[in-house]
Specification:
This protein is of the alpha+beta class. The protein is 38% helix and 24% strand. A hairpin with a 2-residue loop joins strand 17 and strand 18. Pfam families: GAF (PF01590), GAF_2 (PF13185), SpoIIE (PF07228).
């Protein structure tokens, strides 16, 4: 609260100091000077409502000014502005709705306002003037020096004129924005080589940490002696702070500085202000006092002294919709020139590009998560089968967000036998995933409740794919697992798929030979079944080709590496651990991996 000089206490209105509102007000490029368009609005209000005074009043943090006015007494007519002690329009900004007062002297909100005494304001009607985002910049107001009952027709007319006046304000803001965009385009021409190179550099990765590291090394030492890159969490709080210094000997100091800064920003911090408002900040001349004011961690001051500080600027990193997702801070040591407007513009461009790169990385992560959830939702839960231990894994390719066509399945027949299957549909997109789900359902529908040999089941599957016109070719292994004396008997048929692997209880590893033509061929071939026996502790591994296929080597070499890895594991490895090791060994995978393992109990 403050006194107005006549002993009257005024309460500040927070909305007046809103940075976004003030920025929008500034973009109108209006001030306390006559503007013909807005003077015309004021004259229309005066004529149509028959009032002695009418104003287009814009309100900033400490005054109101009138680009449009008629009937103001002197000296206010010449000044075209008043302090807030004489402002009714500030209350329109505060309440964000029309303010209609037949006699202001009767209303506690304004009865002590000096406009009543000094300007003769008694009756007042003010309609909000807004920008495109609905922020109230001021008021189109009608004023009388005597009490007045405002009619509905008068208030409707005033509201219509205020809407037209708001449109003119928005046009001014849009023109200013267009001019700024044009200037930025002209200035960007001189920085095109660097920025284009940076865009290509940042666009070369979908990993956030890699993008941030590349960004830092691109800016240092070209633009600054050292830099900080702050990324925020969804609540707008600093989540990570990383940095790069031109002097490799200062790396440890900078790492510690960034670590402390993550939770050590004070209310006066320039970084916090940029993250909050989205407006850049520049200190052409800076010292350690800036650091002390900006942090709650005293240790940061001596660290900054060793790192060096003579000038700094901070710009927001913005994603789509101008959402602030972080900030870039550039720092020069003493002896290097201070940052100027040109540096700020360059940094802002970098902030935009960084926002695109980080946004794309985060979007990739979100899309990848959705794809993984979708893929896993299409994979079944494994049944509990007496005498058989089951484990399965699915892992998408490391460099894609698409769902794939790899699948596995295991279900129990009415007679207690287990049907196990694994397969791979051509493609890595939604269509492949949909076809994969269709094929898996065909396998279940074709095999459930039937005692046919597995080769006949696969042949029926060929016929179903042709008859139902399933639009793909695929590979699969279908197996029927039946309890037998001393273990399990497995009847299986391979349709173009990598052959199963046998890991005996003693650690011996072999390939179950036998591979037939693909599923879904125009002329279905004759299918051949095979049989193998699993003794207690023996394991049968069904897998897709992502486990063994590499772009830089034949698939046979990949299979040999897999066999060697299994043999090196030795006997008695728990089934879940065995599956995890296989996936870990496939760290260079270029395709999805599905794995289904069953062990005789």
């Amino acid at each position: 609260m403050s006194e107005d000089g006549r002993g009257r206490v005024s309460v500040p209105i927070p909305a007046l100091a809103d940075p976004d509102r003030l920025r929008s007000l500034d973009e109108t490029r209006l001030d306390a000077v006559p503007d013909e368009a807005f003077d015309r609005f004021a004259r229309l209000v005066g004529d149509l409502l028959d009032v002695p005074v009418a104003l287009v009043s814009l309100v900033d943090a400490d005054r109101q000014f009138f680009p449009g006015a008629t009937g103001l007494p002197e000296p206010w007519a010449a000044r075209r502005e008043t302090p807030l002690t004489h402002s009714f329009c500030q209350h329109v900004v505060d309440i964000e709705m029309p303010l209609v007062l037949p006699d202001a002297r009767l209303y506690p909100r304004v009865r002590l306002n000096l406009a009543i005494e000094d300007l003769g304001v008694v009756a007042y009607a003010g309609m909000p003037l807004t920008d495109l985002d609905g922020r109230v910049l001021g008021s189109l107001c009608a004023i009388d020096s005597k009490p007045r009952a405002w009619s509905k027709e008068q208030l409707r007319t005033l509201a219509d004129l205020a809407a037209a006046c708001s449109s003119e304000l928005r046009l001014r803001i849009a023109v200013r924005g267009a001019e700024q965009a044009r200037r930025r385009a002209e200035e960007a021409h001189d920085r095109l080589a660097m920025l284009a190179g940076m865009s290509e550099m940042l666009g070369g990765t979908l990993d956030v940490a890699t993008a941030v590291d590349r960004l830092g090394h691109a800016m240092v030492p070209l633009l600054a002696d050292w830099c900080l890159i702050t990324l925020v969490d969804p609540a707008g709080r600093p989540r990570t702070v990383t940095g790069v210094h031109r002097d490799a000997e200062r790396e440890a100091d900078l790492t510690r500085f960034a670590e402390l800064l993550t939770t050590g920003l004070s209310a006066e911090s320039q970084i916090r202000s940029v993250l909050r408002t989205g407006r850049p900040a520049v200190r052409a001349v800076a010292d350690l006092d800036d650091v002390a004011r900006g942090t709650t961690r005293p240790e940061l001051v001596p660290l900054a002294d060793r790192l060096g500080i003579g000038s700094h600027l901070t710009v927001p990193i913005t994603a789509a919709g101008d959402r602030v997702i972080g900030a870039v801070t550039l720092v020069n040591r003493q002896g290097r020139r201070g940052f100027d407007a040109s540096d700020l513009r360059t940094a802002q461009d970098i902030g935009v590009r960084a926002g695109q790169a980080v946004g794309n990385s985060r979007l990739y992560g979100e899309q990848r998560h959705v794809a993984e959830v979708l893929q896993h939702s299409m994979l079944p839960s494994l049944p509990a089968v007496p005498g058989i231990e089951l484990a399965a894994r699915y892992l998408p390719a490391a460099d894609r967000v698409e769902v794939g066509g790899d699948w596995y399945d295991a279900f129990v027949q009415p007679d207690g036998e287990l049907i196990a299957a694994i397969g791979d549909v051509a493609g890595h997109d939604i269509e492949a995933a949909a076809t994969m789900g269709q094929l898996r359902n065909l396998v279940r529908g074709n095999a459930y409740g039937r005692n046919d040999p597995v080769e006949d089941l696969v042949a029926h599957l060929d016929q179903a794919m042709g008859g139902l016109r399933v639009p793909t070719v695929a590979t699969a292994v279908l197996a029927r697992v039946r309890p037998a004396a001393g273990g399990l008997t497995v009847f299986w048929c391979n349709a173009g798929h990598p052959p199963p692997l046998l890991v005996r209880a003693d650690g011996t590893v072999s390939v179950a030979d036998g591979r037939g033509p693909l599923l879904g061929l125009a002329r279905p071939p004759r299918r051949t079944g095979r049989t193998l026996t699993l003794a207690p502790g023996d394991t049968l591994l069904l897998h897709t080709d992502g486990l063994i296929e590499r772009r830089d080597q034949p698939i046979d070499e990949g299979q040999a590496e897999l066999l060697a890895h299994l043999a090196a594991g030795g006997p008695g490895v728990p089934l879940d651990l065995l599956c995890d090791r296989l996936l870990a060994a496939a760290h260079r995978r270029e395709d999805d991996v599905a794995l289904l393992a069953l062990r005789a109990g």
